[in-house]
Design brief:
The structure is a homotetramer. Chain A is of the alpha/beta class. Chain A folds into 2 domains: about 1-160, Rossmann fold, CATH 3.40.50.720; about 170-290, Orthogonal Bundle (N-(1-d-carboxylethyl)-l-norvaline Dehydrogenase, domain 2), CATH 1.10.1040. Chain A contains 14 helices and 9 strands. Chain A has helices at about 10-20, 35-40, 50-55, 65-75, 80, 95-110, 125, 140-150, 165-195, 200-205, 215-225, 235-250, 255-270, 280-290, and strands spanning about 1-5, 25-30, 45, 60, 90, 115, 120, 130-135, 155-160. The first copy, chain A, has a 6-stranded parallel sheet, sandwiched between helices. Chain A has a 3-stranded mixed sheet with strand order 7-8-9. Chain A starts with a strand and ends with a helix. At the A-B interface, β9, α9, α10, α11 and α12 of A face β9, α9, α10, α11 and α12 of B.
Chain lengths: ~290, ~290, ~290, ~290
């Protein structure tokens, strides 16, 4: 079985490595060449371009940066047209529900199976093969994908038969993370406004009611004003909130908290903080209160 | 040492019981008589009224329902004027920052020490003496209160020298809980809008990124549409959000997520759901999306 | 007929003057003495205090600063208890619906008629006796008040039989003004973000779709960055938005735009702009966009 | 001089008619044929398709429905490639800032002048040739367009040298209209919550502080619950709010009131009201308050 893997970013590289370790033959491509070379050292076959990697692939795994990259590579870059009938494309990127739905249709038109499978987990989780995989697509395609999911993740969460459903779930999760950060930001500004140290407040909440990874991770960064290097850039957070709002609009779901978060992200960007870690979103709440 | 205990509601009753068990002499009063009788069976001395309970007390512990009850009992009901000079009042209720600040001043005027000590934890935690206690006041008063805190809680979190600081912290925590529920409500509406079952989505998030008590508790209720009996009424949630917004305004801290939550709570009340558990806040997100 | 007039601020002074000009006998009081002296020169009888002014009055007209001033003067200052049975109190201040409702009850308990009659119009309109008067109360009391309204205003708008209804209407109008300013602020920030001069944009809208006094007045100030002296202070705008939100909560009416405006006002205060004219609210939209 | 006119909808038809009346030769095309036939009776030359109309045109005027229609017709439909070098395209549609910017670039690449000139005014204003025209583009192109603007409108407002600036202004105006309607909706819900008839409240505000066309028009519809036939559909209002938010995001301008309005529009759609007149947005405020 020939596997093509497109997109060797922070997440894609360790994921592709795990497929190699599990014994799969992997044809790899990435927009910039360095990670391809790294993966080739681990046994991958470097492809000259995405289309070449996809040709004759039984399974195409892609985890590209965003909607534009997916459109440019899969549709305009003619990867889809290079896939053979009956092949399976597993798209693990966080993309819009609308594009996911379009892709599902385009793949069906070409006789190629399509599964959306965005993941939860940072790079160390990817390295350990312990991702949570949110997967949607028709049952047969999901069954074909499962052995790969078992290599990449600790658990596969089935989200439905329509691929875009997995993207909706992924966006809902990322929206909840944005809200957790934004809410911490406001809560911190509130207690600071009453002269309570944010370190003590964050210690309290992450030790008690909010003793969850997301609060501990982002809360720790806020406590220490540690926003660089960015684990996940604030500007990418805005992208996901925007996709969340669009996914809501597509299903007539108003999302006032997501709307408030959108404005907060934009305000962060307007103050030159888009390159900082997502935790820096908390700075905007403090700035609004005149605390910065 | 004579301890007066005012307010034997859901939380006050087990807390007063624990003080009795620890060997303290407790003079008890409650607006309705039944819990006083229950506590008397456990060794408390029933007081005819709040003022009588407070007379000669070394330490007054109160955990009354809200600002109005505190004003009516402590100020208008002349409990404060009945306290002897040098006594200590530990106010464990969730009240406004403004009232807490006023009370601090009034107590100081009378030569009575004042500590604010709202708590985190539901009734079972109170019964087990495992509350988290958020305490603020001057160092000497806090030291006097500590033995009682050790009986009632697992840990005391010092929030500052001004009593209202503890109330600001408590409100910030409750705001974060409101936001967690409201955010889950929007996220659930979003995935439901894409035909994903909320049970599966809530299972996913509470098993992974949001594996924290508050999400598991309220998320479980949302998953099962289980809103009665109310552990904490939605209408009380609105009260706390209102106090949060006022605490923000008092320190010039804008709180847009809290504002969005305020509107959601009011909308829930407008649809007759104020008596339901706080988790029912999620219904308003679904209602807005035409899903109910 | 003896008329008592309490509150000779910017609006009260010209209104009381007009009553004098119309031939009424006016007993006047104000917290600070200077305006009383001015009015005495125009024929008013200076009262030593509010209670003295009210004693034996047939009609008491009051236009005090806010809820606190009304409570302090009318209730705590015992003006109400000094009024004779059958007298009429016309309260023309912009106060909360809740206080208006309480006052209506208190007056009824004392056998004193009570009409709420807040006004629309700035000082020059008051001087010209051309105010729009929003009046509510029982029909007989409104009929008694009408001759005074005819002196003070160009038109009396009946808002209902319960006095607080007029206050609800007044707050709704002020909320709409706040929204007009806040909306102009966002629109200006948007076009500025695309390098369009705000002067040209404001000229356009106030000459066409929004050719209304409120847009022309506040829009003109925004166009010229003219925020001092304040015609109506931004901090008073926050007070009215807060009362609007409370009036909404009292009737289970969510008000998301008012909530957004509340946060914008607070942010303005946090940046030291509460003393500026209400038009300065627009600065916060520009500040958020990094344009200041 | 040969003029091509694409898009004979509600606005386009009377505009093209006015150009005919002014003596211009007009080659007309519309997606559906009926309006073309109507215009041909008035002297226009019917084109078989958009590309044919544009061929050899000195000036192309287009007023198509939305971004998709513009892309489909001008770019994908190869109208742009059919235009001769040195021709002028006047795009009078309300489209996104992003598309306007892309079009400016595409036209420049082809050596075709491009002016954006969206308009203010409903159909009767278009018929009377009394539109307000918001125009942006380079000075020479604007000068070429001016004689046509003089036929179509009462005044041309210059918005800048970059075409997309006119679109930003147009969106800012439409956002302000959305806010006026949404704000009236909340204000009406507020007074209704206190048992004040909305007819009287709307009469008050549109006679006094808000005596402007937009309030009188939409306020009158709200007063009478008259939402059909739609003068401007609520669903189109959502489109414009969405484009406004995108224009804000493109320039890092947070727009919290626009965000609140977005959610209100979506909620209206979720309750099946997207086909109603924009004034029906007020229903969502009432629905949230449990008043419907």
């Amino acid at each position: 079985m020939k596997i093509a893997f497109l997109g060797l970013g922070t997440m894609g590289l360790p994921m592709a490595s795990n497929l190699l370790k599990a014994g799969y033959t992997v044809y790899a491509w990435n927009r910039s060449p360095a990670p391809v070379a790294m993966l080739a050292e681990r046994g991958a076959i470097a492809a000259a371009n995405a289309r070449e990697a996809a040709t004759d692939a039984d399974i195409l795994v892609s985890i590209l940066a965003d909607d534009d990259a997916v459109r440019a590579t899969i549709l305009d870059g003619q990867v889809l047209s290079a896939l053979k009938a009956g092949a399976l494309h597993i798209n693990m990127a966080t993309i819009s529900v609308e594009l996911a739905s379009n892709l599902a249709q385009e793949h069906q038109n070409k006789g190629v199976h399509y599964v959306a499978a965005p993941v939860l987990g940072r790079v160390n989780v990817a390295e350990a093969g312990q991702l949570n995989i949110l997967a949607a697509g028709d049952a047969q395609a999901l069954a074909t994908a499962q052995p790969l999911f078992d290599v990449l993740g600790q658990k596969t969460w089935k989200c439905g038969a329509r691929p875009e459903q997995a993207n909706a779930v992924k966006l809902a999760v990322n929206f909840m993370i944005a809200s957790a950060i934004g809410t911490m930001g406001e809560a911190v500004a509130l207690v600071q406004g009453h002269d309570v140290a944010k370190t003590e407040f964050l210690d309290l909440i992450t030790s008690t009611v909010f003793a969850a990874p997301v609060y501990q991770g982002y809360g720790g960064a806020i406590a220490q004003d540690r926003y660089e290097p960015a684990g996940f850039k604030l500007s990418l957070g805005l992208k996901d909130v925007r996709l969340t709002l669009a996914a809501g609009e597509g299903a007539n779901v108003p999302l006032p908290i997501a709307s408030a978060l959108r404005d907060t992200h934009i305000e962060s960007l307007a103050h030159g903080e888009g390159h900082l870690d997502w935790a820096a979103l908390s700075r905007t709440a403090a700035r609004r209160a005149g605390q910065l």
